Amino acid sequence: MAEATFVSCGAGSGSPQGRRREVVVSGKRVKTVDVHAHCAVPAAMALVGRALETEALLMANTEERLRAMDAQGIDVEALSINPYWYTAERDVAAKLIQIQNEALAEICAANPERFVAFATVALQHPDLAAEQLEQGVKRYGLRGAGLGGSVAGLELSDPKFHPFWAKAEQLGVVVFIHPQGTAELDRTGRLGGNGLLTNTIGNPLETTIALSHLIFDGTLDRFPGIKICAAHGGGYLPSYAARSDAVMTTFPHRMTGTIAKRPTEYVRQLYVDSIVFTPEALRHLAAEMGPGQIVMGTDYPFPWTSTSVDHILSTPGLSDADKVAMLGGTARTLLNIPD
Ligand SMILES: [Zn+2]
Questions:
Q1: 257 alpha carbon to ligand 1 midpoint, in Å?
Q2: 245 C-alpha to center of ligand 1: Å?
Q3: How far is the CA of 248 from the centre of ligand 1 (A)?
Q4: Measured between alpha carbons, how far is 98 from 91 in angstroms, rounded to an integer?
Q5: Is the dihedral of CA 284, 289, 294, 299 positive or negative?
Q6: CB of 4 within 8 A of CB of 311?
Q7: In the chain, how long is the greatest CA-to-CA distance?
Q8: Which of 285, 311, 288, 286 is nearest to 298 (CA)?
Q9: End-to-end Cα distance, the chain
């Protein structure tokens, strides 16, 4: 097997941002894709009085973002916006999403080599969300949808949302699920105190709950073609997935619904990002899910990591083909990003 390497090249022509790292595996340039990159559209946020978390989310000036991408070896970011509009009334939500998706389309059009984006959708109004997804994909060239891990207290598996899942399946586009913490636990105070536990463990916990419901409530049976990509390595689900199989034989009388496969089989059809911090964690994730289910993420501009490329390159046990797939190959297929 050829050795995986990377090189850092000078900017060459046409790169005003300075040094752009070019990632190479077994002698071939890899087009790398970051599926987990945040941004914000203030004109949409203003409709519900939402404050900006950090200026680094803005896309009015992308120089700093492109510099970070160039330094890390990220060729393309798939932009998403964490939902803050799930309690908005229908007319407000319709306007907000229209402004937001138009802005995302403009951001991508201004720099088509570097940015694609997930459509935002008002999932609390599922029929509207289905329309917004279709319009986002067909009219604005967006590459799927971004969702939260729950919608104003309802699970993503709630039958109310079936029209949205049906549309996502019909369009064949990927749905990126990003958690928003576990608000129900926040209220108890159990995630208070040192360590930002509302985010540190609250976020992956919400993803774990969301994916578990999509499996156990039969959503993935009802819509077998849906493509789901979950943030932060799928939360805690892949690291402890076999317990979800074990419950079926340990407490069969507590299985109140029927699912077609063992839970771990559904886990292996999900996609997750690579934000799990250590080579051992990524090796385990690949073992549990299959290396072809993992796509690179950074969480930009939140500084959880700036070494996502090296994390993949340095993980033992991955073949060069696995690394190419994680760095960008799988995401390019999912997001329809050309060579
Ligand atoms: Zn994030």
A1: 32
A2: 29
A3: 32
A4: 11
A5: negative
A6: no
A7: 66
A8: 311
A9: 24
pLDDT at 8 over 60: no
Give CA separation, 320 vs 25, 90, 274, 278, 313, in Å: 7, 48, 16, 18, 9
Q: With b meaning 16 or more CB within 10 Å and e meaning fewer, what string describes 259-269?
A: beebbbebbeb
Burial class (CB in 10 A: 0-12, 13-18, 19+), 105: middle
Quote the ligand 1 centre to 26 CA distance (angstroms).
31
Structure token digits, residue 103? 């802005």
Question: Do residues 271 and 227 lie in contact, with contact meaning Cβ atoms separated by under 8 Å?
Answer: yes
146 Cα: distance to centroid of ligand 1 (angstroms): 11
Residues 208 and 115: their CA atoms lie apart, in Å, by: 28
Q: Sheet containing 174-177: give its strands across.
A: 119-120, 144-147, 174-177, 227-230, 271-273, 294-295
> What is this structure's pTM?
0.94
Alpha carbon separation from 43 to 95, 97, 122 (Å, rounded): 11, 11, 16
Q: Find all residues with CB under 8 Å of 278, minimum gap 6, and list them.
A: 311
Q: Which residue has the higher pLDDT, 2 or 140?
A: 140
Which chain residues have CB less than 5 Å from ligand 1, an ion? 299
Write out pLDDT tens, residues 262-298: 999 999 999 999 999 999 999 999 999 999 999 999 9
